[in-house]
Design a protein that fits this description.
By secondary structure, the chain is mainly α. It has one domain: Orthogonal Bundle (434 Repressor (Amino-terminal Domain)). Helix content is 69%, strand content 0%. It has five helices and no strands. α2 crosses α3. It is globular.
């Protein structure tokens, strides 16, 4: 997925949740400018932010919880390397 497609997806999910860029940024403890950069295709989030981004934007069901736990574990392992 290229950065433009990623940005469009983040923007669409954020809007579905009824969040502003500032509100999402606050949940992730980052600047709203970072959210804007992602949504305009100017970059990607750091890998350590992906689990929190997923939790904030993707509807959670019991079936979706297991892959998210695996993602968090993988990111934690990669971050400690």
């Amino acid at each position: 997925m290229n950065s433009k497609d990623f940005g469009k997806r983040v923007a669409a999910l954020r809007k579905e949740k009824g969040l502003t860029q500032s509100e999402l940024a606050e949940k992730l403890n980052i600047s709203n400018k970072a959210i804007s950069r992602w949504e305009t295709g100017e970059g990607y989030p750091e890998i350590t932010i992906l689990p929190s981004l997923a939790v904030s934007l993707i509807p959670q069901t019991p079936e979706s919880a297991l892959p998210l736990k695996r993602l968090k574990s993988t990111v934690s392992t990669l971050s400690s390397m």
